[in-house]
Design brief:
Strand content: 25-35%
Largest sheet: 8 strands, mixed
CATH superfamily of the largest domain: FAD/NAD(P)-binding domain
Structural class: alpha/beta
Bound molecules: flavin-adenine dinucleotide, nicotinamide-adenine-dinucleotide
Number of domains: 3
CATH class of the largest domain: Alpha Beta
CATH architecture of the largest domain: 3-Layer(bba) Sandwich
Distance between the termini: 70 Å
């Protein structure tokens, strides 16, 4: 067995592990990064990149159709082979060599294999060549990502259904697709496949996109139905069967939905099983970490990104990775002792305050910070202002532009704590909201942030006017 000592071991070379490792190397420490599959992880090969690559051509086509003049120039439908080929380019044909080059150029040591904790700061990596025993002088970082949660539906586990990996890497467009789960992944992939030509049925046991304000989710629901998606909301699933090579989904009301493929996208949980956490008296269902990612009972152990289970988004995981990486470096130099101060360079405070998120459907939903309900649940004294997006910029952007905006104000401090926009192409409006929330910009100063005319950003002015400024 080979043995190696390094300053820090990072397990998992997804976007988050890569960023943690790079930050630690930047601070002058040595890092071994361990990866059992592709360097770059879920986001690059089976999640963000391929799903957005599948959605973008449909959005571009629809944008042209939404404006008189360009609408008349659209005479065909999506070329699904070109769409899939472009998706393959964005996933580098599932070849991670360019990411491996980046890792090496950054000064990180990469070991391929499956890692497992064997004791305090000890990790064992196994691959086809045998095993390597690693010892970290300072810290071990778990950046192992998340695993799809499969609901206990009768018959489901016996069938070869699609998870998001299969849906984002498919080589053919199925004639029909049933999507189980009305979250972000389900909504995005339902629309992508409907626009590529599949007959899509989406089944959700509650509403569609239940984590977002109802008016925003309703606009997405309308968009999906316009694309031909059948929405079966507030509908339970009783069982799933093989109906002669087709999936046969029996709903709780007895209705049957049949399709060529079945996509199960019903959430994810931290990928912590098989890591040896039990030997440290830790629960593999989830870890208790502080704002620097440090595990409460074991100060040498950290968790970041999906593995930490706080926010399952690439950009937020990379943010956690920067904070954790810098905290490990600072602690190794005696510059940080105990938990980090909120909003310091070592604390991922925005995780609980101002997470920006985008649902890349058409229309889109973007949200930063808290919904009204979440803010009220947190005990804040909040007000809500909402309106339809109807400004010169939006009507120029698309004929019959339909959108909705909401801001949630902390009335005790007169600052924004939540902003949501829904409508075509609102994603680029999001960062202004994130800055206003993180910067705790007082509303009477935000009043001086003048939106350019004629852009969709003018909705900010309408919101502030309606609020009473
Ligand atoms: C369909 C879909 C679309 C998404 N779209 C978006 C989006 O548009 N924007 C966004 O921000 N987020 C999106 N997400 C979420 C995003 O993909 C995740 O938040 C992100 O990939 C998490 O990164 P990570 O590095 O924590 O985990 P991962 O990318 O999962 O990386 C973890 C890595 O650890 C490795 N690993 C695990 N265990 C071990 C072990 N024991 N030894 C060695 N290696 C190990 C794995 O092989 C993997 O490569 C999407 C998710 C899905 C499912
Ligand atoms: N644009 C993006 O940023 C993006 C896109 C896709 C995924 N993601 C991330 O990936 C994660 C996983 O996405 P997701 O859509 O699978 O999760 P999700 O948590 O967003 O949605 C899961 C959905 O499945 C439903 N569900 C759960 N159990 C069920 C059951 N037994 N039967 C029927 N429905 C059930 C839930 O009610 C929910 O609507 C998300 O947390 C999200 O952060 C992000």
């Amino acid at each position: 067995m080979t043995e190696q000592t390094t300053d820090v071991i990072v397990i998992g070379a997804g976007a988050v592990g890569e960023n943690a490792a790079a930050r630690i190397v930047r601070g002058g420490l040595s890092v071994v990064l361990v990866e059992s599959e592709l360097v770059g992880g879920e986001c690059s090969y089976w999640a963000c990149m391929p799903s957005k690559a599948l959605l973008r051509p449909g959005a571009a086509l629809n944008a042209a159709r939404a404006v008189a003049g360009s609408r008349e120039a659209v005479t065909g439908t999506l070329d699904f082979q070109q769409v899939l080929a472009r998706r393959d380019e964005f996933t580098s044909h599932w070849d991670d060599s360019s990411q491996v080059d980046w890792v090496k150029d950054t000064g990180i040591t990469l070991i391929r294999g499956m890692a497992r904790l064997t004791g305090e700061r000890h990790v064992e990596v196994t691959n086809d060549d045998g095993a390597t025993r690693l010892l970290a002088r300072h810290a071990v970082v778990l950046a192992t990502g998340s695993t799809p949660s499969v609901p206990p539906i009768d018959g489901l586990s016996e069938l070869a259904f699609w998870g998001t990996r299969e849906a984002t890497s498919a080589k053919e467009v199925p004639e029909s697709l049933t999507v189980l789960g009305g979250g972000v992944a389900g909504a995005e992939l339902a629309q992508a496949y409907a626009r590529l030509g599949s007959r899509v049925t989406l089944i959700a046991r509650s509403g569609l996109l239940g984590n977002y304000p109802g008016q925003a989710s309703a606009l997405v629901g309308k968009g999906l139905e316009r694309d031909g998606v059948t929405l079966l909301l507030n509908t339970g699933t009783q069982s799933v069967h093989d109906g002669g090579g087709r999936f046969r989904v029996v709903l709780s009301d007895g209705q049957v939905v049949q399709s060529e493929k079945l996509l199960v996208s019903t959430g994810r949980h931290p990928a912590l099983a098989g890591l040896g956490l039990e030997s440290l008296d830790l629960d593999p269902k989830g870890l208790d970490t502080d704002e620097s990612g440090q595990v409460a009972a074991h100060p040498w152990l950290y968790a970041v990104g999906d593995a930490a289970g706080k926010v399952l988004l690439t950009h937020q995981g990379k943010y956690e990775a920067r904070m954790t990486g810098d905290a490990i470096v600072a602690r190794s130099k005696g510059q940080l002792d105990g938990p980090p101060e909120r909003w310091s360079a070592f604390a991922a405070t925005a995780d609980t305050y101002a997470v920006p998120q985008v649902v890349f459907t058409d229309p889109e939903i973007v949200m930063a910070g808290r919904t009204l309900e979440a803010a009220q649940k947190d005990g804040l004294n909040v007000s809500e202002t909402s309106l339809e997006i109807a400004v010169a910029g939006s009507s120029l952007h698309a004929d019959n532009y339909e959108g909705w905006a909401q801001m949630v104000v902390d009335e005790d401090r007169k600052v924004l704590v939540g902003v949501t926009f829904a409508g075509p192409d609102v994603a680029e409006l999001l960062h202004a909201a994130t800055i206003a929330i993180v910067g705790e910009v007082p509303l009477d100063r935000l009043w001086h942030a003048v939106p350019a005319y004629p852009t969709i950003n003018e909705v900010w002015l309408r919101l502030l006017e309606k609020y009473g400024l």
